[in-house]
Write a structure and sequence with these properties.
The structure is a single chain. With 342 residues, the chain is an alpha+beta fold. It folds into two domains: 149 residues, 3-Layer(aba) Sandwich (Glutaredoxin); 123 residues, Glutathione S-transferase Yfyf (Class Pi), Chain A, domain 2 (Up-down Bundle). The chain contains eleven helices and seven strands. Helix 2 links the parallel strand 3 and strand 4. The two termini are 36 Å apart. The relative contact order is 0.11.
Amino acid sequence: MGMLIDGEWHDNPDPKSTDATGHSFPHWSSLSTNNALGDLAARYVLVASYSCPWSHATLVTRALLGLQQTVPLHVAGGPRIEGYALSPEGPLSASATTADATTVYRHLHELYTATAPGFTGRATVPVLWDRMERRLVLADSGDILRWLDLLGGAGPARLHPESAQKETEELLALLRDRLAQPIYRAGLATTQAVYDAATDTVFATLSDLEARLADRRFLLGPVLSVADIRLFCLLVRFDTVYGPLFRLTRRRLTDHPALWAHTRDILSLPGVQDTVQMRTIQEGYFLNDGATNPHRIIADLPDLDWTPDAGRVFAGCVRRAVPAPAAAAWITSRSGIKSSHV
């Protein structure tokens, strides 16, 4: 994986020659709900990828909070040449009528060096770009999620419930340390021992989460939180990417009734379907990981019925959902293109 070293892009850096464990510029997070939305609208651009689960969480949150007009999106993706490419169309493109039109950004890493010319580290998504000051202001998905949540309205952050702050942080740590990271360790493993250990951790964690969701709608009970969004963004990829490509085949997502129902439930919430582009997700993995998939063959999508479980209703919960036929039609297209009525 390539990276920036002293502001220069290197496709195959020597891991012994540099320490890329952190960012070389401070994150910025001074916005609060006291800011007027009229002053903020379209100033900050979310740069995100549909394929990356950490990026995807910001897209889901942006949709759930109805911030699509307030926070414009510029998509990063495609073949990984000098890392993530920036779409030729979008608020940061040459055709955009903004101050940024004077500079054409073709690669994500150019946003990093525009902010910190001597930056050393990985150029990762998602990031938040300030059109007025022409620099990155946030480069961590957790920071962006909290910022979006605060931007969504007055009062306590809606997806970071103050009443369950400690429990939410514990859940996020569990999802990171015992699900997301082991998933990738299994997928990138080059020894049987590493693969076996990572696989054991993944499926033990899925069993624990299955038990937790057996009698509740969301991870915190009746309250939707950022932890549910993080979990969804991993599970929606499980049977289509992590199973076939990362060899996580011991059990399917669909073999976990509560987790499968939870995933379909989140998918049915307003705006979420539009953030799930399954063909783009598959291409992001199958076409950009030469060591795991050298022949760049994309696995066929499994036949799954993504219709939400209408019977999954718990005390104190009212499940909002799109019509069931829309959910079913969205995923059955082999091309990954959503039906026009969805």
